[in-house]
Design brief:
- By secondary structure, the protein is mostly beta strands.
- 0% of the residues lie in helices and 51% in strands.
- It has no helices and ten strands.
- The protein has strands spanning 2-7, 10-12, 18-26, 33-39, 46-51, 58-60, 68-73, 78-83, 92-99, 109-113.
- The strands form two sheets. It has a six-stranded mixed sheet with strand order 2-10-9-4-5-6, with no helix packed on it. It has a four-stranded antiparallel sheet with strand order 1-3-8-7, with no helix packed on it.
């Protein structure tokens, strides 16, 4: 089983930047696809970005394409999400996810974009 701990969230003004981290512990991190999801108040959890096990392939939701960058450091068992040009609609709790073998969500990290 892989345990996930997200961090790096906070309050930022529109147009600002944040970098989220997801530290994984437990079983093998490097062989798994990793994703970032987010959930805004009153809305369903949605996929934000994904990255292949090697880091060579990435994909993004249309709403964040060109603004967010997903990356990973397999040596550090850590997943990242660099978020630029943040908008109020990016406000949500952000979670990381792995596949195969996902069992439970971490606590997430809150991102609030507001002036």
């Amino acid at each position: 089983q892989v345990q996930l701990v997200e961090s790096g969230g906070g309050l930022v003004q529109p147009g600002g930047s944040l970098t989220l981290s997801c530290r994984a512990s437990g079983r093998t991190f490097s062989g798994r696809v990793m994703r970032w999801y987010r959930q805004a108040p009153g809305k369903e959890r949605e996929l934000v970005a994904g990255i292949s096990s090697s880091g060579g392939k990435t994909n993004y939701a249309n709403s964040v394409k060109g603004r967010f960058i997903i990356s990973r450091d397999n040596a550090k068992n850590t997943l990242y999400l660099q978020m630029n040009s943040l908008k109020p609609e990016d406000t949500a709790v952000y979670y990381c996810y792995y596949a195969p073998g996902f069992t439970s969500w971490g606590q997430g990290t809150q991102v609030t974009v507001s002036s």
